Amino acid sequence: MAVSITLRNIIKKYDEKSALNNVTLGVEKGHIHALIGTTGSGKSTLLRVIATLCAPTLGSGYINGLNLGARQNQIRHQIGYMSQDSRFEQSLTLMENLTLHGKLHGIAQADLINRISGFVRRFEVSDSLHAFPREVSFGTRRKMEFIRAVLHNPSILLLDEPTASLDQGCKELMEAFLREQKLRFTTVMVSSNLDQVERIADRISILDEGRLVADGTLKELKETERENRILDLILSETHERDFNILDASPHVVSYTVQGNHYEIITEVDIPPEKITALFHERVVEATPRLPALSDIFKRMIRVEAMHE
């Protein structure tokens, strides 16, 4: 499979603080590649580096074979970028904003009108086309920003939290479009919605404090957890000695506690009864399950923190 985006040893510093620390990454053509991580982990900065909106302090990269450091103008014409912040010109209507964007990318007037008409019907925002950005809802603005990102038919699509704070209908429209048109774009998407990432991403990169701590398909990431399973326990009451009990158990790999909810990672062949027996009559509910992406994410971040 051809690689559309190649980054090697990318470092981005602001004063003495490293936003990105030696990130090496490849994104295959026609794939949806998700970037996940905690707040401040460097996800949006990495997206901005790919978009040529900020230059790396050190490192190199290629976008569709074009050098990231020397061919910014050519690269930008191949990229559709949707940031977390609204970047519409407030003095122009949404139609005028989209038209201006299309003309900057050299789209002929007739073709541009047809494209806009098709997209606004698809995303159910036709009635808002001639409104100003401040006059429409947040969801409508986000859909219009998504339309602008794909309007010029870019080969690289960069999306920063495209569906955050949107209702389920908006999310489904965007996800359906990304799935249907997947081969048309190479998509890099920052998302804090791990369920969404599981549904649509071909490959997932986990960042923590500017470093790439894991990278792979969902199947590959889950393979790292193949020896473990999760036991969700709800107890009627908790005791201080519970931590000593869990720490002393040879079957417990790790655990987290929120109130009376205990999320316990155990070896995969350990029956749940081995764990519930530790708490006797206090067990209200016990649910065994295999690790999900959210579990892998939490463990990766936790492991990296332990290695500091």
Describe this structure in words.
The protein has 308 residues and is of the alpha/beta class. The protein folds into 2 domains: 3-222, P-loop containing nucleotide triphosphate hydrolases (Rossmann fold); 226-290, Alpha-Beta Plaits (2-Layer Sandwich). The protein is 34% helix and 30% strand. It is built from 11 helices and 14 strands. The chain has helices spanning 43-50, 72-76, 94-104, 109-122, 138-151, 168-180, 194-200, 218-223, 241-248, 272-276, 293-306; strands at 3-14, 17-28, 32-37, 58-63, 66-67, 79-82, 156-160, 186-190, 203-208, 211-216, 228-235, 252-258, 261-267, 283-289. The model has no long low-confidence stretch (mean pLDDT 93).
**Termini separation:** 36 Å
What proportion strand? 25-35%
What proportion of the residues is helical, as a percent range? 25-40%
For the biggest sheet, the summary is: 6 strands, mixed
CATH superfamily of the largest domain: P-loop containing nucleotide triphosphate hydrolases
What's the number of helices?
A: 11
Summarize the structure.
The protein is of the alpha/beta class. The chain contains eleven helices and 14 strands.
Any chance you could write out the topology, listing elements then pairs?
Layout: E1 3-14, E2 17-28, E3 32-37, H1 43-50, E4 58-63, E5 66-67, H2 72-76, E6 79-82, H3 94-104, H4 109-122, H5 138-151, E7 156-160, H6 168-180, E8 186-190, H7 194-200, E9 203-208, E10 211-216, H8 218-223, E11 228-235, H9 241-248, E12 252-258, E13 261-267, H10 272-276, E14 283-289, H11 293-306
Parallel strand pairs: 3-8, 3-9, 6-7, 7-8
Antiparallel strand pairs: 1-2, 1-4, 4-5, 9-10, 11-13, 11-14, 12-13
